[in-house]
Structure of D-alanine aminotransferase:
Amino acid sequence: DKIYYNGNIIKREDAKVDIEDRGYQFADGVYEVVAFYQGEPFTLEEHMERLVFSAGEIDIETPSAETLIKEAKNYMQETGYADRNAKLYVQVSRGVASRSHAYPDGLEPVIIMKAGPLNPNPEEYFQEGVKIITLPDERWSRCYIKSIALLPNILAKKKAKQADAYEAVMSRDGFITEGSSSNIFIVEDDTIITPPATNYILNGITRQTVIDRLAPELGYEVIEESIPYYTLLKAEQVFLTGTTTEIMPVVQINDKVVGDGKVGAETKEIFKAFRELTGFVRGK
Ligand code: PMP
């Protein structure tokens, strides 16, 4: 296994974290996960631009998105994933400094990348749909930043797994926000609705792909508006979006069946269009 570490490609066992790395001590950093389909990156530009944006929002200076794109492509070529389905994890931590809440100016960020297998969800999840649970959103109010501080998200995902559910979808003040690692859409009377990209959600690149590319191509309008929790519970169709989630139909919310319990026509079409766009081939 090879790791990208501040511009160098090194062996996994040589990649070490300093115990005073602020990412390690304070979750002081940002990240991205990018899918590669048979070696071809999917929306790599968008991910690297979001990484630079997230870093900027917490006062971390990174190399340009163009530089990061070049570095990521070059790194992937050096791994065993050059022509496979893979995911690339990219993390930027503020850097190493003697532990103190206020960070010193001018720290050198620590940038790491790690390639791994894509590990797509089983095909039956996409064909039959999955269950989700609902939870209160206990996160901070700057969820538009893709921060490595993910405690509420990991605890929510664990609760979902314990309930045999794929995802935990959160709500704040009576309105749904997003899943612990995905965005959410509902379909009502041929209209696709998703919560707006406020500070309370991460504006997913898969979400944006549905809004900008897939829905218009299929002739659907997407409305970005707040969705009350009770509207979610009576929605006819529900689906999740995310880099590793892809387009995931939801057929059960807590103990309640969604619609007739089958994957709806619009959801199926969007899933199919997404697969065509990414060029995903199972087993590669
Ligand atoms: N929301 C959260 C909280 C996430 O962690 C993710 C996955 N990174 C998403 C939404 C989906 O974003 P994307 O489509 O860019 O993977």
